[in-house]
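Before relying on records like the one below, remember that each one covers exactly one chain. Contacts with other chains, cofactors or solvent are not represented anywhere in the record.
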Amino acid sequence: MARIAFSEQGLTPFEKLLGHNNEILKKWISLEKCFFNTQTFTPELKEEVRRILAFNNGCEYCKAKGKPSKGLTDSKVLAATKIADLVSKKRLIDNHEFNSLKKEFNDQEISELFALICFLTASQRFGALLDLQPSCSI
């Protein structure tokens, strides 16, 4: 059971917790769709970033959707997951880490990647703060 009651708004347990604030819920869902519909990154890259962050951010609901994959070989996916791991474990990245990222991504991609990391972190921390569990029934 989550720490607060589920609202009537939203489809998923996460959305029903955020649904206590319907305007925020609508815009959150819209931004989520924007991130996951963009063609900048492959679905695999986005999912692997989500998985790394879920485990580092402590959201049980998000962790239940899958562990980070082993044996990744795509250089962009590896770079994105490495930076997501670093960012979620410490506040800032140093110039060496940032320069490594620039070898794989252009400025537009870095901006979107960091925005994605921040959005996913906010979502997962929200779930963790409210103790959203994979078995929550709505």
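The CA atoms of residues 49 and 84 lie 6 Å apart.
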